[in-house]
Design brief:
- With 389 residues, this protein is an alpha/beta fold.
- Helix content is 37%, strand content 16%.
- The strands form four sheets. The chain has a seven-stranded mixed beta sheet with strand order 1-11-10-7-6-2-3, with helices on both faces. It has a four-stranded antiparallel beta sheet with strand order 12-14-16-15. Strands 9-8-13 form a three-stranded antiparallel beta sheet, with no helix packed on it.
- It folds into two domains: 132 residues, Aspartate Aminotransferase, domain 1, CATH 3.90.1150.10; 244 residues, Aspartate Aminotransferase, domain 2 (3-Layer(aba) Sandwich).
- The radius of gyration is 21 Å and the shape is globular.
- It contains eleven helices and 16 strands.
- The protein binds pyridoxal-5'-phosphate (PLP).
- The site of pyridoxal-5'-phosphate has 15 residues, from helix 4 and helix 5.
Amino acid sequence: MTDEAFVQGIVAAVGGVTGGNAPLHVPDLAGNEWAYVKECLDTGWVSTAGAYVGRFEAMLAEYTGARNAIAVVNGTAALHACLMAVGVGPGDEVICPAATFVATANAITYQGAVPHFVDVREVDLGLDVGRLDTHLADIGERRGGVLTNRLTGRRIAAVVPMHSFGHPVDLDALVEVCARHGVTLVEDAAESLGSFYRGKHTGRFGAVAALSFNGNKVVTTGGGGAVLTDDDALAARLRHLTTTAKQPHRWEFIHDCIGYNYRMPNVNAAIGCGQMELLPRYVAEKRVVAQRYLDAFATLPGVRAVAEPSGCQSNYWLNVIVLDRSRAYLRDAVLAATNDAGLMTRPLWRPMHLLPMFGDCPRMELGVTEDLYARLINLPSSPALGRRD
Ligand SMILES: *Cc1c(COP(=O)(O)O)cnc(C)c1O
């Protein structure tokens, strides 16, 4: 097959699923969002003190099975709050995949900690737990009971896996490795609302987890995020830290530590309540879209569509194709041809260790991440595409 035929085959396959122009992921706001926001405006309850905030948190807890959900202003703030809550601090190291959105690594630095990048697996695009285990055995040593990177002398305080594009990482294995090495598990579940690992919702396997409700996520609140935790004491601490650490009092302003103004406003939570009512439908529709891509790409040589890992149910937040290595040099040609045809496609985020501010961070060998960066393409994945016949 010529290069041109290969590229045009991909354009045709994507266009066949979308039926024409398609953005990467647009929100669907056809439920009760309008009515709920109108109520906020009519009653004047627009700020974080409104009742939709608690209602949205209850809906998140119910859907995920988490004991507590704490709604905050965005997913990055949720990650930052998670790291604060589990005691990550200056001089610590926190492990995260190099193949992630920049927010994961940024949030680590907000606590004065240093990101330490690990590689991912090609099969599920998530943190490679087997290699993490070996890596920790290689570089880690116990100093006074604390897992320490013997190369840098810093405590390894937490591991932050990310469920890439909605595909759960190997959580059973990861929970075991974190427990054995004595390191806290914090999930970046920003992309995986609606994704389950062996029947249990992602974000329920570590001490805390972060969700995002940015405009392009499965559920949006305009901007927003949430922390999930089963630990009531951590939940109370998270509520305190994200509301300026203010002690309850009838009139005094007493703040007992440096806090953050991170709580979600009622207007955003009102949108979130409308969205959560429709989440099961969005996930079902997105799974229809994913199956169509899987079918379309099954017959196309030189490229594969990524399917959910076995034992998992993925939300297929963004569908993914990976070009064969022999066709990797055509990545930009595919990106150009699809975008020219009105089909919005994107490459993998530039890996964290290749960004200027993270170039000097500690890391393992990142061959799979770099290889995927050269070959991975995200496809249009809005739930509305699943409503086409
Ligand atoms: C979307 C996202 C976040 C959070 O992003 P916000 O825009 O701050 O809500 C964090 N991590 C990952 C992997 C994400 O995709």
